[in-house]
């Protein structure tokens, strides 16, 4: 899972760009366990936020919401081809 520390106005955040569980491990608690391990690591190294990047409407969106994350209105994604 690629992750990095990134400064933000309120301190440092822990950014995860990609996170997925193989289909055979989905709905068996593996994703939630892995996510909580990442949260504990972020806390241990002094991060005050965890940012997860996912496509809107994809299953990951509801998974993150179920795990008490919320959508940020302050972020936008941009692309230019």
Compose a concise summary of this entry.
The protein has 81 residues and is of the alpha+beta class.
Q: How does the helix and strand content classify structurally?
A: alpha+beta
Helicity level: 25-40%
Q: Please state how the strands of the largest beta sheet are arranged side by side.
A: 1-2-3
Low-confidence stretches: none
**Helix and strand sequence:** EEHEH
- Count the beta strands: 3
Query: Span from first to last CA?
Result: 27 Å
Question: What share of residues are in beta strands?
Answer: 15-25%
- The whole-angstrom Rg is 13 Å
| Shape annotation | globular
Q: Main beta sheet: strand number and arrangement? A: 3 strands, mixed
Please report the number of helical segments. Answer: 2
- Average pLDDT metric: 80
Characterise the protein shown here.
- The protein is 28% helix and 20% strand.
- It contains 2 helices and 3 strands.
- It has helices at residues 30-44, 59-66; strands spanning 3-8, 11-16, 49-52.
- The chain has a 3-stranded mixed beta sheet, with helices on one face.
- The radius of gyration is 13 Å and the shape is globular.
List the helices and strands and how they pair.
Elements (H helix, E strand, L loop, with lengths): L2 E6 L2 E6 L13 H15 L4 E4 L6 H8 L15
Parallel strand pairs: 2-3
Antiparallel strand pairs: 1-2
């Amino acid at each position: 899972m690629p992750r990095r520390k990134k400064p933000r106005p309120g301190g440092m955040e822990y950014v995860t760009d990609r996170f997925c569980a193989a289909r055979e491990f989905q709905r068996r608690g593996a994703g939630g366990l892995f996510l909580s391990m990442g949260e504990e690591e972020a806390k241990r190294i002094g991060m005050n936020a965890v940012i997860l990047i996912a496509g809107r409407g994809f299953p990951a969106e509801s998974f993150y919401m179920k795990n008490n994350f919320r959508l940020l209105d302050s972020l936008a994604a941009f692309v230019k081809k």
